[in-house]
Each structure stands twice: as structure tokens, then as C-alpha cells.
Specification:
Number of domains: 4
Structural class: alpha/beta
Strand order of the largest sheet: 15-14-13-16-18-17
CATH topology of the largest domain: Rossmann fold
Oligomer: single chain
Number of strands: 22
Distance between the termini: 42 Å
Length: 387
């Protein structure tokens, strides 16, 4: 559980400060993970708030799945952020005045023991795995997690392999070139056909048909492995983490790849939180993909899966790419407007909510999809009388 050290003025990820011991609980956090607020998000919030300003330093953000909102926090919640059904950003400020964020050095001091323990575990487990095979590479996406993993495993002199899906953000391609010029050992496995050429044949990817993962990721990586290692077993170190997705909660350290039979995937960062990744990055002054000035996660910019909030941010950060998503209809699919329930009253068809009132649940009316007023967000599901 998360705690706040008044002396460090920083969040302690395990509830105990490495410098000062016991902390006070941040009792409102109901998420397993925290991340830093991005520069773009801070700008958007400050533009929309009155009598409050988020200043310099690091602010933490967590996602509240119950009410489908994001909370900016320090030792207490500061701002509630939510996307409405019509794609607008609703901001509810919970404090006033100019508030400064956490200092990077103080965050590390409060969590030093944890970061050092995680670091040693990764190196120890990886060393043990490498004793069984000399054939090993790192799957390198150009994101924060794989950058940390590559740095942690630098003593083993493994090559990094970047999968060029043809739909990475421009900042990611620039970051890969930057690292190569700095001497990082990065090789590229590129998809043979572009995503948009295949889009005409397969339609837009869906949850039950993620064809893009196979054609743009697995196939070029399988081809790379075949060319360099043949059918021999190979270890691929990957930077996946449990808190990134529910499907990863029960992942093991080592697993067989579903589509590449001779690949054994090693996932030494499974138990790292997002803030662990950033604390390690800041402490070791690792290079950072400029993409993280806008979004909390990278990946393919066309991805529609669970990234509604990122698609909203793309309107500001990457308007041209957002325009492409509009043309293919992704933005309208990502923000679905629910058709209101209707009933017949006196021979007239009227909205059910106009008769019985809205029934708010999980931050919106389950009948018509209208967002709940901010005053209702923290209340249990109740029906409200029609106006």
C-alpha cells in the first residue's frame, strides 16, 4: 500500500520510507499502480482549472476503474479527470492554490531499498536463466520498460531487437535512431507489409481478431529468429509487467511463445510498478523517448484496445495521426454513444430517463450513457428524479 513521507515529501511505494521508516497512508488510492503525470496532461489540466495550478515536480496518477476516472494525487487527491461520453475532458479540482510536485531525488530516497531489491532480483534471475542458453536477445520496443530492461542486462552484452510494425509513433523511430548513434546494439526486424495495406483486406482489428499482432509483430520477429538462430531454442527477454493488463496478472517468469515455437520468453520485470520503472530511469539518467511527454504508454499509434484516453490526447499531441484515425472511423468506435432507452407514454415515445430519472452506475447512466455530475461520482448507484 502507498504511503506519504512528510520528511521526503514523496510517495513510498511499499508504505515504508527507506530514509525515515513509517509513513502516513494515502488511503484514497484504490489502484495497484501509479504513474507520473505527463507534461501534456498537466498543461491540459492547468488550462481548465481555476484557483488551482499544478506546478513543477512529479505528480502521481492512478486509474479508478470503478468510476472510470483518473486521479492526480500527492499525499491527497488533487484533481479528478474523466472523459465524457461525447469525448470531452471533465475536470474536478479538489484543492486550491499552486501546488508543487515531488522532487525526483526525494522519490528515490523514499524508495531506495525497494528499487535496489528489484534491481538485484532481475540481475540474479536473468543470470540464472542465461546459464541454460547462450542464445538470447532482448525484445526492445523503444519504450520506458524495455529501455530499463536493456540497461539492467547490459553486463550480459545481449543484442536488442526492435520490431518495426510500420505504425510506431514518429518519436519512437527517432528514439531508436538516437540510441543507435549513441552505441546501443539495436537490430531491426521489420514487417513486410504495411498495416494500412493489410487493413483493406482484413478490416480494423477487433478484440476477437487481433490480426495486426500476428502480421506486424510476431511474423517479423519469427523471421528474424529463423534467420539468426534457425530452429534452435532461444531466450527472449521481454519487459512486460503484471500491472499493465489483467491478462498478465498470472504470467510466469518464463513462458513459451504461442506463435514462435522455439522462443522462450523471460519476463524479469513482471513485478515492477510503473513508478519503479520511472524511479530507476531518473536515478540512472537513462534516455527517454519523447513520446512520454504526451502519453503514459507507447506502442502502435493505431491500436484501439483500451486506449480511449490516449486517442483523446492524440488530438493535441499528434493531430495528423488523429486525423487518420478519424478517416478510418476509430475515434467514433472508441467513444461509443449509447442509444437512450425509450418508452411509450400517452401515445408519445419519450426517453425513459425523462420519466424515471437517470440511474448512475460507474460514473454514467446505465440507461442512456449520460455522464454523472461530479457531485454524484462518489455516491453509490441510485436513481435520480427527473427534472
Amino acid at each position: 500500500m502507498y504511503g506519504w513521507c512528510d520528511k521526503c515529501e514523496a510517495i513510498a511505494l511499499e508504505g515504508m520510507c527507506s530514509e525515515h521508516g513509517a509513513t502516513k497512508p494515502i488511503s484514497m488510492i484504490n489502484s495497484v499502480d501509479l504513474r507520473p503525470l505527463t507534461k501534456l496532461e498537466k498543461q491540459l489540466l492547468n488550462d481548465r482549472m481555476e484557483r488551482m495550478e499544478l506546478g513543477n515536480g512529479i505528480f502521481a496518477v492512478y486509474g479508478d476503474r470503478v468510476y472510470r476516472r483518473k486521479i492526480v494525487t500527492l499525499d491527497r487527491p488533487l484533481v479528478e479527470v474523466k472523459l465524457t461520453n461525447d469525448g470531452q475532458l471533465a475536470v474536478n479540482q479538489l484543492a486550491t492554490g499552486k501546488i508543487e510536485g515531488m522532487n525526483i531525488g526525494s522519490i528515490f530516497n523514499a524508495n531506495r531499498d525497494r528499487i535496489e531489491r528489484l534491481t538485484e532480483t532481475v540481475k540474479s534471475f536473468s543470470r540464472w536463466e542465461l546459464e541454460s542458453s547462450e542464445r538470447a536477445i532482448i525484445s526492445f520496443s523503444g519504450g520506458k520498460d524495455s529501455t530499463v530492461l536493456s540497461h539492467l542486462l547490459s553486463e550480459f552484452k545481449l543484442r536488442n531487437v526492435f520490431i518495426d510494425t510500420t505504425i510506431e509513433f514518429p518519436e519512437t523511430y527517432m528514439f531508436i535512431r538516437q540510441l543507435q548513434t549513441q552505441g546501443w546494439n539495436i537490430e531491426i526486424a521489420k514487417a513486410k507489409r504495411s498495416f494500412f495495406a493489410l487493413l483493406k483486406e482484413n478490416g480494423y482489428p477487433k478484440y476477437d481478431n487481433r490480426w495486426c499482432c500476428k502480421t506486424q509483430k510476431f511474423e517479423p520477429f519469427r523471421r528474424y529468429i529463423d534467420e539468426h538462430f534457425g530452429e534452435e531454442p532461444i531466450l527472449v527477454f521481454s519487459a512486460e509487467r503484471r500491472c499493465e493488463a489483467l491478462s498478465r496478472l498470472d504470467q510466469p517468469l518464463r513462458k513459451k511463445h504461442k506463435y514462435i515455437p522455439n522462443q522462450n520468453t523471460i519476463q524479469p520485470l513482471l513485478d515492477w510498478l510503473t513508478m519503479d520503472i520511472w524511479i530507476y530511469t531518473w536515478k540512472n539518467r537513462l534516455p527517454i523517448n519523447e513520446l512520454y511527454g504526451y502519453y503514459d504508454r507507447g506502442g502502435c499509434w493505431t491500436c484501439p484496445f483500451g486506449l480511449r484516453y490516449r486517442i483523446f490526447l492524440m488530438k493535441c499531441a499528434h493531430p495528423k495521426l488523429y486525423g487518420v484515425l478519424e478517416k478510418v472511423g476509430l475515434t467514433s468506435r472508441a467513444i461509443v454513444k449509447k442509444k437512450p432507452c425509450a418508452m411509450n407514454v400517452g401515445g408519445r415515445v419519450v426517453k425513459t430517463c425523462d420519466v424515471y430519472g437517470h440511474f448512475y452506475k460507474n460514473g454514467s447512466c446505465f440507461r442512456c450513457g449520460s455522464p454523472a455530475p461530479l457531485s454524484e461520482v462518489l455516491q453509490p448507484a441510485v436513481a435520480t428524479s427527473p427534472q
